[in-house]
Amino acid sequence: MTSKQPTPRIRKSPEQVRSAVHQAVIDLVSDPEGADLTIPAIAQRAGVNHTSIYRRWGSREALLADVVTTRLERDWPLKDTGTLRGDLTAWAEAGVASIHTPEGRLLVRAVALSMPGSAHAQEERAHHFQRRVHAIERIRDRAAARGENPPPLERILDLLIAPLYLRAIFGIDPPATGYPELLVDRLLNSSDGPDSA
Predict the structure, then answer these.
(1) Are the C-beta atoms of 100 and 76 separated by less than 8 Å?
(2) DSSP secondary-structure letter at 114?
(3) SS3 call for 107
């Protein structure tokens, strides 16, 4: 049993359904009693029919990816600092602040545990996470427009983004200070050099 009572079902707009379902996922993931993170449990907590969840997301895996991506878009915005180094450092600082909260860490772990899932679930999950890749591409595009030479996308993912997620998955807190700057330094000073394409 969980500590919160299910939300009574009332007719909701599509955005209200999405908001209620997202909040239900966060509540269940954060439940100290270890609530089941199933579509029926999520639907009950959100006060919606489980068929509404399947129609919109198709699978639990795709829903979890949407919840995490939406939360990151809210807490991990793009800042235009005027330089590539500044943009990447601001991005990493926001990532540390968002992912390494108790709630953020639990959400990232839930997504990791849901992998790989069906082929359809993998496609849907990739679709949601592509939104974050597009955000990184915007940082690269801004840098190029300023005449800077940004690293390739793959190197940014490997040296800046992956360490943040791996620490969240394994519950390893980053150093108290200077971690975003350290990651950006490693990225920009990596032996492969800047993007030569």
Answers:
(1) no
(2) T
(3) helix
Full 3-state SS string of 12-64? CCHHHHHHHHHHHHHHHHHCCCCCCCCHHHHHHHHCCCHHHHHHHHCCHHHHH
Distance between alpha carbon 8 and the CA centroid of its chain, in Å? 29
Are the CB atoms for 3 and 31 separated by under 8 Å? Answer: yes
Residue 103: the pLDDT is 76
From residue 149, how far is each of 41, 93, 162, 181, 182 by CA, in Å? 48, 22, 21, 18, 19
Q: What CA–CA distance (Å, rounded) separates 85 from 107?
A: 28
The 10s digit of each residue's pLDDT in 61-85 is: 888 888 888 887 776 667 889 999 9
Averaged over 156-160, what is the pLDDT?
Answer: 93
In terms of Cα–Cα distance, which of 40, 48, 39 is closest to 18? 48
Q: Are 162 and 99 in contact (CB under 8 A)?
A: no
Identify the DSSP state of 157: I
The pTM assigned to this predicted structure is 0.69
